[in-house]
Every structure is written in C-alpha cells, then in structure tokens.
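re: ur question from yesterday

yeah so i grabbed the chain u mentioned. its 47 aa long if i counted rite. heres the sequnce exactly as i have it in my notes:
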Amino acid sequence: MTEYNIYCDESNHLEFDKAPVMVLGSIYVPKEKITAINEKQIVCAYI
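ran it thru and got these structure tokens back, copy pasting raw so excuse formatting
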C-alpha cells in the first residue's frame, strides 16, 4: 500500500477585505517521491 503526504493551504479571508470568498486547496504526494521533489528547484509565480 502506498503512503501519501497531504499538503493543504487556504487563502486568507478577512472580514473587511471586500472579498466574499475563501479558497482551500490541497495536493497529495506519494511518500517515496518527497525527497526527489524537495531536491528540485521549484519556481512559483503568483499571477
């Protein structure tokens, strides 16, 4: 049986930020892939 790590994050919804929504996202990764993923250089861009 494969074990998975689950990572989740949510947007920051504040009462007075005039945004009526909040977003929850997650990703699951096979545990044996974690080291390989951590060794890669990952570039994130926020649009």
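noticed a couple things. The chain has one domain: 1-13+21-47. also The two ends are 38 Å apart (CA to CA).
anyway ttyl
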